[in-house]
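Comment thread on ticket #2218

A.B. wrote:
> Attaching the input chain for the structure job we discussed in standup.
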Amino acid sequence: MHLCCILRATAIACGKRRSFPRMKTSLYALREFFGPSYARDITLDRLDVYVAARLDAGVMPASIRSDLAILRRAFRLAARAGKAIVPPFPSLQVNNTRTGFFEREDFEAARSHLPDPIQGVMTFAYCTGWRVRSEILPLQWKQIDWTAGTVRLEPGTTKNDEGHMFPFAVLPELADMLKGQWEHTKTLQRATG
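C.D. wrote:
> Ran it. Output below, let me know if you need it in another format.
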């Protein structure tokens, strides 16, 4: 069986996952490197060459590890269907400890150059450490408990699928920003019906 058939089947099987856009990037890289190879020709040696080539191209180890995880998943699905045998996969050490955090003065200087609507989002991100696209922007007012002074992320909406609660009331800057946004929302709703 051709590797591209296995990868296509995996893409179809995983198409509804939140990680699908990232998966498409890996699938492109895998198809580009392995071309029209048969699944039986993918060995540990070829996978080691893939890893070395991607590292030489400046790709981060975490991205390569993600590529390998998707390929391993593809082989496992094919093996379950009796179409391929899963080869041994190389392990890749990833050290992606985050560094270079904004100090308060740096954050405020950068924020001052942003448009007003974005400043509140970045303030929220800075204070909570939550992800902008997947955790902050989808927030709804029903997730804010004004009495308790907390905002919550529901289970299944975070990277590790666990819920989170943040006590915004302990940070006056964050509480003021949220109250200002709430007032702005109410004004907009009255104006637009």
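A.B. wrote:
> Thanks. Noting for the ticket: The CA atoms of residues 15 and 21 lie 9 Å apart.
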